[in-house]
Amino acid sequence: EIDFVANLPPLGGILSISGHAAFRQALPYVDVVTLKALHWSDDEADLPLYYRFFFYPGNRRDLIKPFSLRRWSSVISKLLDVGSEDGEMTFVCRVADKYGTYSETSRKVMIGSFSLGARAPDVFLRSFIAHKIQAESVANG
Q1: Edge-to-edge strands of the sheet including 14-21?
Q2: Which tens digit of pLDDT belongs to each residue from 12-34?
Q3: What's the CA gap between 4 and 109, in Å, rounded?
Q4: Among 125, 111, 84, 123, which Cα is nearest to 17's?
Q5: Is the pTM of this model over 0.85?
Q6: What sign has the CA pseudo-torsion 79, 75, 103, 17?
């Protein structure tokens, strides 16, 4: 008989997304996007936690890209070219313990345009509108 203890992944957290347009002549479709991994917890023996963020268009997980290569920070801001077309963008947060067991949560947002008003009808800024929240836990340890 062999007894063993299974390592559970970090649990209980959410992915918070905020963004605002950084309109520039050369980069009209770039947003400053801030991703935050909030309220994640794990057994004290499994700490520290590591954070990875990814993104992909709509449901095209096959096109996933790293949002950042940093692993320690639970908050990251970045200028991100979200493209010139309106549509969905999915952001993913992967939180792993020191043994590599991880959970993922993803959040799908709608990328939309809005006008600044009658004075500047040809100027559009991008904005994020929360569309759908998905969460799943995946253990790989």
Answers
A1: 14-21, 30-38, 75-81
A2: 999 998 876 555 444 445 577 88
A3: 41
A4: 111
A5: no
A6: negative
